[in-house]
Specification:
single chain; 239 residues; alpha/beta; TIM Barrel; globular; binds 2-phosphoglycolic acid
């Protein structure tokens, strides 16, 4: 399976950030490598600009969230159709920051994944346990419930991102054995052709080891995707 290296820029980036992506492409002699899929999910304000600038350079562009409906009276929200219209091919749904900050339940995440599919995009469905859930030994129960609640029944094209909440932005990661165990667990509950990404403090220094784990089919990278050098090093670790 071709690895997917996805950068989640979160609430970071202005129009001048085009330079950072150009720098990234420059690190691969001007065109993205064929052996990996590279995705950048900038804030919604930059999706159209990035899609125009970079789709011909082998970099896919994605949104970080979408509304479940195609249009309507939902001030401040963006639909999957709008993201697709702006040139996005992917959209992250159910990121733990959305689940925590906006109270998104599995049912909401599932509806957003369906919206992505309806708009012709690939949803990256995020799951992951909190620190207290892991300490209590409940991580597989939690992730199993999130998977059954968040993946649409008629799902076609989707990606799963396993992101332990306690590893996001903290510099902490599970052990390689724990990552392997969780990815095997997720593989048993998803189709064989679905990519399962690991996310949470992926850095140039740990990417190679994590990406070598069976059933880790790429990474969802936050902080380290903002710097061209770091994201390039992570991409190279997958080659
Ligand atoms: P991080 O974030 O790489 O900064 O830990 C990952 C994510 O939230 O997707």
């Amino acid at each position: 399976m071709k690895p997917l290296l996805a950068g989640n820029w979160k609430m970071n980036g202005l129009s001048a950030s085009v330079n950072e992506v150009e720098k990234l492409i420059g690190m691969f002699d001007g065109s993205a490598p064929d052996d990996v899929d590279i995705l950048i999910c900038p804030p919604a304000t930059l999706v159209g600009l990035f899609a125009t600038e970079f789709s011909d350079e082998g970099i896919a562009i994605g949104g970080q969230d979408c509304h479940r409906k195609a249009s309507g009276a939902h001030t401040g929200d963006i639909s999957a159709e709008m993201l697709a219209d702006a040139g996005a091919a992917f959209v992250i749904v159910g990121h733990s920051e959305r689940r925590a900050d906006h109270g998104e339940t599995d049912a909401v995440v599932c509806a957003k994944a369906e919206a992505a599919q309806r708009a012709g995009m690939t949803a990256i469905i995020c799951v992951g346990e909190t620190e207290s859930e892991r300490k209590a030994g409940r991580e597989k129960d939690v992730v199993g419930a999130q998977l059954s609640g968040s993946i649409p029944r008629q799902a076609e094209n989707y990606v799963i991102a396993y992101e332990p909440v306690w590893a996001i932005g903290t510099g902490m990661t599970p052990t390689i054995e724990d990552i392997a165990a969780m990815h095997d667990f997720i593989r048993d509950r998803t189709r064989k052709d679905v990519r399962i990404l690991y996310g949470g403090s992926v850095k140039p220094g740990n990417a190679r080891e994590i990406l070598a784990v069976q059933n880790v089919n790429g990474a969802l990278v936050g902080g380290a995707s903002l710097k061209a050098e770091d994201f390039a090093a992570i991409i190279k670790a997958a080659l």
